[in-house]
């Protein structure tokens, strides 16, 4: 459900523009409300699951996810959908964090653990890989509402599986919920995403913009202070002294600096820049997501053989290489999904090589009793970086379109008009015939597509370079000493998966 929800919703964004009259910023918030909401519950869920039982919290979260999906499907207004997506994100985040904690408890060592997380990666990949075409097909046959409503039905089946197949587990040392930590971290993440998304309208250097930025900074400082002085912090900073944990955490962030955040905008690229309909765009997106279906077992084998210090930076590097190929493929004269397909396949392969090893290493690097906390930090890193980069990639896209318009148009436009045109083009609601300024260009009929291509190429370049930088940082943080210990710890016949608590 979680994978399907990530990959199917982006394909219906062009439809939501038309049906709900949503603008580009509202489309960003339809996705970002979900990711920000996930961050608000991840650490709280880890603590609650450790204290009251991972199975219990898991089943409750599935039920709430089904109800929230029902509300999303009944929404008739963009604002209502954004609010209901926030509720869906809270329950989805709780569902995911419990899932990882349950797997980590039931499969704790060696090849059995590797097989379990490989299976998890494949099942997640099924939802992710087929999400684009599933979303497009649902819109074509039943309407966009069923992209959400279908989860209400799946939730019933999932609850039955969880009740019969999951063993209860808990951490008896977990004492209380860290309300102060949850509030300060959530406020900081929300303010950063809001500042980037709404900054062009509010003014980045205006009083409102600076107030939001200051609130984000002060909230984060308060969060650090709260966690450092808490007897039982939800975010235990001592785990960052474990090189394997910190290196893997960079892998969590790296995937969302590139792959996941760009997936939000790729359907818009296929729909608006290349002129594909929803079904064609969904099919084109399969080249981006299908590798996550078959590659996870290879990623786990690389982890077992070479350790996280090699597997995770390698996966991030492959993601970056895929983005650079997409950037190159979008620069030719006649761009189609085929020119982007090699890069999409490579980026998806890199994601599949990175995803399950990251989760495996972060939860395996700490004691089993702190699996909820460790998986909470891992997923928090993913969702925080995703929320920020959805906003940041949107900002880069708008800036790229604006720069193309500024250079191409023979008349100078004021900043507000330029921003408005760029947002309309980015959202897919602009046509060359609707914009008088574009009629002045020699190739007015292709001006919208040219502007979009320029903006998207900047986003692709950003995605590739940023994940390469994070890959290098992850490799350095893991360090040669980790690789040496990993090789020393392995036996020839049955290598251990991840060393626990190796600082």
Order of helices and strands: HHHHHHHHHHHHHHHHHH
Q: Could you give a short account of the major beta sheet?
A: none
CATH superfamily of the largest domain: MFS general substrate transporter like domains
Q: Detail the poorly predicted runs.
A: 488-503
Kindly provide the name of the CATH class of the largest domain: Mainly Alpha
- Distance between the ends: 35 Å
The total beta strand count reads: 0
Number of helices: 18
| CATH architecture term of the largest domain | Up-down Bundle
Counted up, domains total: 2
Radius of gyration: 22 Å
What's the CATH topology name of the largest domain?
Growth Hormone, Chain: A
Shape: globular
Mean of pLDDT: 82
Percent helix, as a range, is over 70%
Class derived from helix and strand content:
mainly alpha
Notes on the structure:
This protein is mostly helical. The protein folds into two domains: 379 residues, MFS general substrate transporter like domains (Growth Hormone, Chain: A); 56 residues. Helix 9 runs parallel beside helix 14 and helix 13 packs across helix 15.
